[in-house]
Amino acid sequence: MEHIDQLRTLGLFDQRVPRYTSYPTAPVFSTDTGSAFQVECIRALDPAAPVSVYVHIPFCERLCWFCACRTQGTRTLSPVESYLGTLEAELTLLAKTLPAGIKMGRLHWGGGTPTILPPHMINRLAQAIKAAIPPAERFEFSVEIDPTMVDDAKIAALQAEGMSRASIGIQDFSEDVQEAIGREQSFEATKRCVDALRAAGITSLNTDLVYGLPHQTLDKIAASVERVLTLNPDRVALFGYAHVPHMAKRQNLIDQAHLPGDQLRYHLFQKASEMFVGAGYAAIGIDHFAKPADALSRASQAGTLRRNFQGYTEDDCSSLIGLGASSISSYPQGYVQNAAATGAYMQRIEAGTLAGYRGHPLSQDDVLHARAIEMLMCDFALDLDQLQHEFGENAAQLAPTHAEVARKFAPFITLTDSALAIKPEGHPLTRIIASAYDAYAPAEAQYSKAS
Ligand SMILES: C[S@@+](CC[C@H](N)C(=O)[O-])C[C@H]1O[C@@H](n2cnc3c(N)ncnc32)[C@H](O)[C@@H]1O
Ligand code: SF4
Fold first, then answer.
1. Tell me: the pLDDT tens digits for 56-66?
2. Which one, of 21, 19, 17, lies nearest residue 309 by Cα?
3. Which H or E element spans position 401?
4. Is residue 352 situated within a structural domain?
5. According to the model, what pLDDT value does residue 11 have?
6. Cα(328)–Cα(356) distance, rounded to whole angstroms?
């Protein structure tokens, strides 16, 4: 049987599975776990261990049709300014709850479009964060940037606040693809942004690309990758387009008839991947590429790559505090998500409580399954002996799943004693294989296609 037919038989083109940026995944969270649990987790943080902080800015001036991120369009800064006031109030509540002396190892601003903030608001937000949780000695500040929504003054403000890494959205440079996804962005504007970020001393620059978009062909993705390579990014994220119009209503503006079919979608990823690897990038996990000297590649080499709500990371902080509407915090004891709608989030903070409204306390079994899934997603390998070493006898409960995975996915697996590894040609199946270790049997409708 042809390799692609084998992948099809194993569900690559039919199954909808989570992207496993957490385990359990967010749809499992329940409103039984909310701000009281959040307060407990924050109070229990080890003051000697720096935390990561994520701040969500759910505003964009343009609303791209393909986008499934939690964001809303605005033409004026007034909702952004009130939201900033709420973030400041949330930070004051957080500071009262945090153990004394705790530091921030990482800060990430995501969205939406954080660079919708004008320079004075960038400074205001950064100062409020640093007042609540001072930066640790080794501090990294990363920001998601829309190249069409940034200028030198905003970059200078971010630089003054210590921005060391940036991630810019590109998706695809072909004009007809851009038109079909409602997102115009010239190569020239993107290059100006990249040059300005480099001049501001960014040490790691990521670019986001998406495959599986309407009108994409092998030639067009190749042309986009060629142009991206001239920008010389340190990292590239190559996401599969998640078409989920029942969840992201604006995607109804995308004509499904122009979406590439399953086989083409598969080859679009393979084509772009070959080009990045051919240009000297290391393939990282299921959808990232990084230069060998970049921290992500080094973590991948060292076996310390991790996966959190922002995707692949080499961040080694054991807790992530999420601020702003819809942000998810991750503590050793479990997850808590802030109210998702901006209005509901603001109401909670104005009422004087932290904004957590749903979550999941982690059981011992959850932690075991989470680690197994993270190992597969990061290393394409899972060693039961290693899990036994970390988790003791409890790890033995995964043995039947392990045996079943080895049997079912045999052509794409190597099995050595207790260790299972997914062969490179089986990497597209990784999310499906990981889902075998998911004890919550996720409802497929909520997720994007495995391919
Ligand atoms: C917050 S946005 C990027 C920052 C900035 N707002 C911009 O547009 O440049 C995060 C990234 O998520 C990815 N993304 C958004 N919607 C997606 C979808 N439906 N399928 C796959 N990736 C998606 C895109 O690559 C996008 O650049
Ligand atoms: S891709 Fe970026 S700019 Fe476009 S809607 Fe999504 S978050 Fe906003």
1. 999 999 999 99
2. 21
3. helix 399-408
4. no
5. 87
6. 8
Inside any domain, residue 92: yes
CATH number at residue 308: 3.20.20.70
Q: Give the mutation target among 16, 69, 209 for probing the ligand 1 site: most ligand atoms within 8 A of CB.
A: 69
User: Is the pLDDT confidence value at 282 over 90?
Assistant: yes
Distance 68 CA to ligand 1 centre (A): 7
- Beta-sheet pairing, 381-383 with 282-284: unpaired
The share of the chain scoring above pLDDT 90, in percent, equals: 92
State whether the beta carbon of 428 lies less than 6 angstroms from ligand 2.
no
Q: Measured in angstroms, how far is the CA atom of residue 383 from the centroid of ligand 2?
A: 39
Residue in 63, 194, 210, 250 to alter for ligand 1 test, most ligand atoms within 8 A of Cβ: 210
Q: Which ligand is located closest to the Cα atom of residue 19?
A: 1
Residues 179, 52, single domain; the answer is yes
Quick one: 305 and 394 in the same domain? no
Q: Which tens digit of pLDDT belongs to each residue from 130-173? A: 999 999 999 999 999 999 999 999 999 999 999 999 999 999 99
Q: What's the token pair of residue 428?
A: 């597209």
**Residue 249 burial (C-beta neighbours within 10 Å; 0-12, 13-18, 19+):** exposed
Query: Is residue 341 in some structural domain?
Result: no
Q: Examine residue 198 and state whether it is found in any structural domain, yes or no.
A: yes
In whole angstroms, what is the distance from residue 38 CA to residue 334 CA? 9
Same domain, yes or no: 154 and 232? yes
Cα gap 289→237, rounded to integer Å: 7
Instruction: Decide: 313 in ligand 2 pocket, CB within 6 A.
Output: no
